């Protein structure tokens, strides 16, 4: 029922047990998502606790994901301010939390943002900070993230998109020195 306002407030046991917490999204920054923790509410106790709760935002990073430039724009488009999200604690580094972030899309459907970004080709798989390499959970999550990245690669999406043959041909012709010189000559003739 306690409200966490900084990463250091969260007990070590919560991080070790990979507890899921609920929060309200406030901002999307280069460092990560700024989220207000929403504690479990117990009718009478919650109303009393609100008077003494301090204000503060948790910095939540997408564990195992290195965002590409288009990833930030996609997040800002997909997530709305004050949207409720769930974040599963995987690790804590300085003042940031490494998490799996879940967003409800419909009544019974939630999407893992970490996987969805990789599935869209808007990031690359990275080391999951906070989890030990020899842990079963690390390899289970890493495998899920790699599968999502592979889907983007197979579908030619995002950073994995390759130019088609016609696009490559057009680029090579327009970048040809002779064609550029010819264009300059035609422009000179038009100007005269």
TrEMBL record:
Where is it located?
Answer: Membrane
Question: What is the membrane topology listed in the Swiss-Prot or TrEMBL record?
Answer: Single-pass membrane protein
Q: Which InterPro entries match?
A: C3orf33-like, SNase_OB-fold_sf
GO cellular component labels? extracellular space; membrane
Q: Which SUPFAM superfamilies match?
A: Staphylococcal nuclease
Query: Keyword Transferase, does the record have it?
Result: no
Q: Which domain of life is it from?
A: Eukaryota
What Gene3D superfamilies would the database entry show?
A: 2.40.50.90
**Keywords of the record:** Acetylation, Membrane, Transmembrane, Transmembrane helix
Q: PANTHER family under this entry? A: PROTEIN C3ORF33
Q: What is this protein called?
A: CC033 protein
- Biological source species: Phaetusa simplex
């Amino acid at each position: 029922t306690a409200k966490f306002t900084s990463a250091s407030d969260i007990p070590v046991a919560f991080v070790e047990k990979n507890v899921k917490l609920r929060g309200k999204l406030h901002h999307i920054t280069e460092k990560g998502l700024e989220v207000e923790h929403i504690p479990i509410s117990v009718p009478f106790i919650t109303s009393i606790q609100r008077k003494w709760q301090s204000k503060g935002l948790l910095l939540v990073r997408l564990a195992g994901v290195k965002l590409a430039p288009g990833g930030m724009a996609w997040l800002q488009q997909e997530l709305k301010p004050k949207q409720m999200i769930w974040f599963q604690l995987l690790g804590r580094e300085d003042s940031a939390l490494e998490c799996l972030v879940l967003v409800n899309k419909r009544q019974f459907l939630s999407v893992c943002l970490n996987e969805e970004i990789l599935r869209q080709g808007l990031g690359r798989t990275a080391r999951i900070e906070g989890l030990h390499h020899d842990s079963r959970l690390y390899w289970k999550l890493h495998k899920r993230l790699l599968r999502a990245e592979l889907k983007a690669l197979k579908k030619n999406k995002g950073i994995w998109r390759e130019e088609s043959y016609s696009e490559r041909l057009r680029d090579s012709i327009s970048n040809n020195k002779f064609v550029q010189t010819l264009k300059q000559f035609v422009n000179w003739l038009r100007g005269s």
